[in-house]
Design a protein that fits this description.
68% of the residues lie in helices and 0% in strands. It is mainly alpha-helical. It has two domains: 67 residues; 46 residues, no CATH class. The mean pLDDT is 77.
Amino acid sequence: MGRNTQVISSISRKAKLNITSFVFILFVLISIFVSINPIVTMISKRNQISSLENKLNIARKENIELLALEKSLYINEVIAQEALKQFNIASPEYKIVYNVNEIDKLKRENADDTLIEEKAIYSNNNLWENLKILYYKEIYNADS
């Protein structure tokens, strides 16, 4: 009876193959979609790590430069120069050199501070005095 019996299935062989291939493809797609999220988070974390490493390298470089500057400040000559500069004192062996501006010379020469003469010279480091010279030379004298 075992050899002569034939089981007739309600689903054909082609339909079974289609169902198994559909289930397999569905399993592959689900596994791909599930694995995409960890891959994306891993890539974003890698980018964050690389940007933080760059910031760390920049901070280390600045730290090294500041340490070198700090070491240079411990030299006795630098300490003496800084103390002399901060307290406006000078030791006898130092020369004191003053940078006198042409405008200051004119102010001292003229007791009258309202007019600046034509020989006033513009300075590279004093914007307000340059504006004052410009006003008195170009605008004030043009009106009078």
